[in-house]
Amino acid sequence: MAPSSPTVLVTRRLPSSVLDMLRAACDVDAHGSTDELDPQTLRERLAGKQGLLCMFNDPIDADTIAAGDGLKVISTVAVGYDNIDVSAATERGIIVTNTPDILTGATAELTWALILAVTRRVGEGDRIIRARGWHGWTFDFLLGGELRGKQLGVVGGGRIGQAVAAVASAFGMEVVFANRSGAGAEGQPVLSLDELLRTSDVVSLHVPLTDATRHLIDRRTLPRMKRSAILINTSRGGVVDDDALAWALEERLIAGAGLDVYEGEPHVHPGLLVCENVCLTPHLGSATRETRTAMAELAARNVVEVLAGRPPLTPVS
Ligand code: GLV
Description:
By secondary structure, the chain is an alpha/beta fold.
C-alpha cells in the first residue's frame, strides 16, 4: 500500500481474502464484528474516508453521508439499496454500487425452498417430530397441496423473479407476472397486480422496496388472494405489511406464507410466530458460501475501481 492510499471504512466482518484485496489498494478501517456500528460511531469513523463498504442493514441516511466528508464511493454488499439515501449521495457526487446478478440463483433457490416447505408442510412436520409428537404414519396426516397444474404469480419482472419463474415448468406450474413495465416476462402473461392476486395459487414477491412498493401487500390487497393461496416474500420486509399478513393468516384469508424478510428485522411480528402454516427463515436469500463470498469480492472491487479513478463494475444507476 502506497503512503497516499485512499481510506475505506468497512462496517462489518468480511472474509479475510476480501479484506486483503482491499488492503492491497487502500488503508482499511474494518469493524471486525457482525454487529451494527451505532450511528454516532459510524459517522465518526466515516469522517475523512473516501470509501464506505457497508451491508443492507446499515442505515446510510443523509446525515451519515454528510459525515463522510471525503466520500467518493458507497459500496453495499447487497442487491437492494433501500438503506442508502442515493439522492443525498448523488448530490454530493458520491457513487453508489451494489452486487446484482451473483445472488440471483441463491435467492431463487431459497424462494423455491419456501414454496415447497409451505405447500408440503415441512416446518410443521419437523416441529412435530422434535416435540416427540409423531406416533406413526397415517393415511391423511399433514396432507399438503400439490404444485402441478397450479399458477405461480411472480410480482416483479427482474432477474430474481425471472430465475424463480424459470423453475416453475419443472413442477408443472404456469407462470404469470405482475410488473409495471411489462418487461422480463419472456412470453409469459403480464397481469395487473389485482388479477395476479385473484388467480394465483402461489404469489412470490420480487420487487425492491421503494415508496411505490411499500406495503404493496396489505389489508386491501391480501383479501384479493385465493383462500387456498400462499404468499412468499424473499424480497424486502416492508413490501408486505406484516400486521396485515398476520391478520389475513389468522382469519384464514390465505392458506400460508413463506417469509425470509420482515419489517423491522430482526424483530418478527408475534402474530406470524404463532402460525403453523408459515415458514420463517432469517433473511437467508443470498446465504450460500459461494454467493456471499462473490458478493463481498464484487463490493470490494467496486470500491477499488472507483478509488483508482475507474468506473465501478456495478453502479446502482
Ligand atoms: C439482501 O437482502 C440483498 O439485498 O442482497
